[in-house]
Amino acid sequence: MSRAGEIPLEPPLVRAPSTVPAREDRSYLGYVAAALAFALAGGFALATWMPLAAAGAVPGIERTPRLVQAHGWLQLQGWAGLFVAGMAIRVVPRFVGRRPVPSRATVPLLGLLTTPLVVRLGVLPWVDGGAARAAALATGWTTAAGCAGVGSILAVTLWRGRRGSEAWRLFVAAGAGWWLAWAPLAAWWGWRAADGGGLAPAAFDDGLAWAVMLGPIGNFILGVQSRAVPVFFGRRPPGTRALAGPWLLVNAGAGAFVLAMALEGTAGARAAGAAHPGTLPPPDVRVARSADGGRTFGPGVIVARGVCPCCRTALAVVGRTVYVAWRHVFPGEVRDIVVARSDDAGESFSAPVRVHADGWAIAGCPHAGPALAADPAGGLHVAWYTGRPDAAGLYAAWSADGGRSFGPPAPLVTGEWVAISRVRLAPAGPGTAWAAWEDRGGEARVVRIARLERGRPASAVLAGAGTAPGLAAAGGIWAVAWGTQEGGVRVRLGGATGPSGAGSP
Of the chain's two ends, which shows fewer C-beta atoms within 10 Å, N or C? Predict the structure, then answer.
């Protein structure tokens, strides 16, 4: 005897001409196997490799931004996407009384869906220039073709299948529509990544990931569970009215992230705010002045917007001239060093000047800001780190006109692989400055000191083993301090004769 709300289950004793015989189609197992392969061999392996590379324990730190994007899509498009696509193609025909989708359609479709994932993992993170742009476009267009195929199969199956008003149809229909929408979004991603040298802008990539998670994947998960789970417990599936609210919220959230992709900035963050409250506008560089020794400060002056949030800014003051340097975020997630100048003690600033077009594209903050040293004659030294794959290292440049233009950069540390390093500057006189930096080009971390003459290092010497140098100079005397591997601090002093005349640590 059944209770209220339960469904009496009886064996199927009657066959009707409209009954579709159950035929097991095993092509979905290929989708499941591919999903597991990309999760284990790709996503999980990269999740282990990337933190080690970012810490400098294994090679690949300069590839980390691309590996981060590859990892995200191997997990989302590979693991979750392939699994959902395979199971949706298997169960939706059964839900609506249609015959299984034939393998002559599902097997080539699986090839279209896996090809861009192979390119993402095996090609795109490891190439540069034209090859990276070609790989990005290939990834976008093959993904678009595969998503269009999945969406078309599901949409046709729903249209030709048995009609009904069950609530699960809301999610499955929306999911099919989102698979079709994923196609142009994937092609758009390929264009943006190609424009960024193989790396899509972080905000754009993040918006697409959330849209896919909620739209094509989330709708099908909710649709299948709303139909299947009640049956497992002998309950009636929920009605359309009960699931209309969750359906609206899921799809409105996915749509908000697509809008965020289009706006890609502060307005985009606000558009997605309802679905992702943690989204913040791009950070600014601001300068505030104090006329009473730091007791109070006036309102902040915005020097620039859209800057790298974690790379420290640098400040140099000579009289009423104020220089500010930071790592700016250019289109395509390119993060290069720029300098702005104020001639009125920080009340207003010039447009930023790019010190050198490194073209380092990284979808994340490297935590390595620039260093500045200025002299009263208008000379300005800048030093910085870049992780561009073919020119990674620490560099210094000189401006003879107060930061309005810069000469070619001079290398302090270069090599096939140079981990993210920090550098400090201190003025030494007209056209000269002291520089102290981490040299991480070898197995051990060491600190070196050099005198810069118009941006060119002269007679660099080893200060000692350690990291994170600090530098100060006054009255012809300089002092450098750094942390040791044992957790202590060492200090070295020097005079106008240069590092070779320095005292003992």
Answer: N
